[in-house]
Write a structure and sequence with these properties.
Layout (H helix, E strand, L loop, with lengths): L6 E2 L4 E2 L3 E5 L2 E4 L4 E3 L3 H4 L8 H13 L11 H13 L4 E7 L2 H18 L7 E5 L8 H5 L4 H4 L11 E2 L13 H19 L4 E6 L16 H11 L3 E5 L23 E4 L11 E6 H9 L14 H16 L2 H22 L3 E7 L2 E6 L15 H12 L4 E2 L11 E4 L7 H22 L2
Parallel strand pairs: 7-8, 7-9, 9-10, 10-11
Antiparallel strand pairs: 1-2, 3-4, 4-5, 6-12, 11-12, 13-14, 14-16, 15-16
Helix pairs in contact: 2-10, 3-10, 4-9, 7-8, 11-13, 12-13
The structure holds pyridoxal-5'-phosphate (PLP).
Length: about 450
């Protein structure tokens, strides 16, 4: 007998089946409507069912969907590369197209290592990452991910990379100012580089705003500027993982733009094609690509579907849509409104320790005790309960627990499509409030 393709192992029952989507809404086959309050996995950022994207898909499919990247480039790929170079900070003028965020970060890892080889410094092979980070599920990407829960079973297979603390303002040492905390956390990078030796370290990787492993944790101002200085001082490349934060999500084109920082490598995914097709990218500076081109001339990366014209055309159409509808600016404005509403909810709820976010990448962290910030035991699954209650009442939100596996509280991400209106945010908040109230009654009995 055929088994359902997806089964929720923890519930032993099947998922609802999606039927279709329009704007911020998804519908299941029974006709029930859901607000896509997290754009799926922070992905569907222009909303569902947009006809002009469907038109581009059809048009490109009729022209050519697939041509192997070693045989051909295409107008779609070249125009997409040009648009990204135009949007990206600094000298990030080169894009390599892949299919997922994990492939993008793993490609960045390989380019960083290859760059130092071409520079005659082959010992620089290790990456430094941060606890409470997520850079992907494949082994290279997971090696760089400080996501305790996702690493746990595979530790023997992962590269032994150093990991430093992330800035986590909500849980900073008592009495420490945000300015001092920014320097304190960035200082950990310098300490790690000096301990291991700059001749060992190829790159430092970080998400501008911590996503899946923390729930929209925003660093204090000054942190990334300091990180950039330290990377420059010790010849360590800086990889900004913008898979979740890129393409307008935080109210700027890229997360690092909030601090004016220019990475050496940048990874994109999710919002880059807004879920209309699998698409992701690794961007690198002229310096990196010129060095590799002068050397072996061959980037050791690539997949069968890399740079296929179909996905490139869709992604280009998505970026044009974002521009035409001013969605970067809208994310900043609507994000401020959503954050205000989340703060009001946090103020009145005894189980929300912090409401936080940047643009439309927002999070709620649940705690047992608001005074002491003591987390609920993860076994209670408080965030998972809120997600389940919200789902029942027709609201989708995204889990962000397990990054520190019980050391800190669990969290959810609220990240609706960048097209969301104020009335739709109010509707989202009514459902979220109801879900939080139901769970707080359960857990505080
Ligand atoms: N990097 C970041 C910051 C992410 O949030 C994710 C996914 O959540 C990834 C990488 C991995 O992307 P994918 O799931 O497309 O492989």
């Amino acid at each position: 007998m055929q088994r359902s393709y997806v089964i929720k192992p923890e519930l032993g029952k099947e998922y609802a089946r999606v039927s279709h989507g329009k704007g911020i809404y998804l519908y299941d086959v029974s006709g029930k409507r859901y607000i896509d309050g997290s754009s799926g996995a922070v992905t569907a950022s222009i909303g569902h069912g947009i006809e002009e994207i469907a038109d581009v898909m059809r048009e490109q499919a009729l022209k050519v969907s697939f041509a192997y990247r070693s045989h051909f480039s295409s107008d779609a790929v070249e125009e997409l590369g040009a648009k990204l170079a135009d949007w990206a900070p600094g000298e990030l003028n080169w894009s390599f197209f892949v299919n997922s965020g994990s492939e993008a970060t793993e490609t960045a890892q390989k380019i960083a290592i290859q760059y130092w080889q071409e520079k005659g410094r082959p010992t620089k092979t290790r990456m430094i990452s941060r606890w409470m980070s997520y850079h992907g599920i494949t082994m290279g990407a997971l090696s760089m991910s400080g996501h305790v829960l996702r690493r746990k079973r595979f530790v023997p297979l992962l590269a032994d990379y150093p990991v430093i603390s992330p800035p986590y303002p909500y849980r900073r040492p008592e009495g420490m100012s945000l300015e001092d905390y920014a320097m304190h956390c960035a200082g950990e990078l310098e300490t790690a580089i000096l301990r291991i030796g700059p001749d060992q370290i190829a790159a430092f990787i970080a998400e501008p705003v911590i996503g899946a492993s923390g729930g929209a944790v925003v660093p204090p101002d000054g942190y990334f500027q300091r990180i950039r200085e330290i990377c420059d001082r010790y010849d360590v490349l800086f990889i900004a993982d913008e898979v979740m934060t890129g393409i307008g999500r935080t109210g700027a084109k890229f997360g690092v733009d909030h601090w004016g920082v220019k990475p050496d490598l940048m990874t994109l995914g999710k919002g880059m094609s807004a879920g209309y097709t699998p698409m992701a990218a690794t961007m690198a500076t002229d310096e990196l690509i010129d060095t590799i081109t002068r050397g072996s001339g061959l980037i050791m990366a690539g997949h069968t579907y890399s740079a296929n014209p179909q996905s490139a055309a869709v992604s280009l159409a998505v970026l044009r849509y974002v521009e035409a509808h001013n969605l970067v600016e809208k994310a900043a404005v609507q994000g401020a409104y959503l954050q205000k509403k989340l703060q009001e909810l946090a103020d009145e709820s005894p189980i929300i320790g912090e409401a936080r976010g940047l643009g439309l990448l927002c999070g709620l962290e649940f705690v047992k005790d608001k005074q002491t910030k003591e987390p609920f035991p993860l076994s209670m699954g408080v965030a998972a309960r809120v997600i389940a209650k919200a789902f029942e009442s027709g609201l989708l939100v995204y889990p962000a627990s397990g990054g520190l596996d019980g050391v800190a509280g669990d969290a959810i991400i609220i990240s609706p499509p960048l097209t969301i209106t104020t009335e739709e945010i109010d509707e989202l908040m009514d459902l979220l409030k109801k879900a939080v109230q139901q769970v707080q009654e359960e857990v505080r009995q």
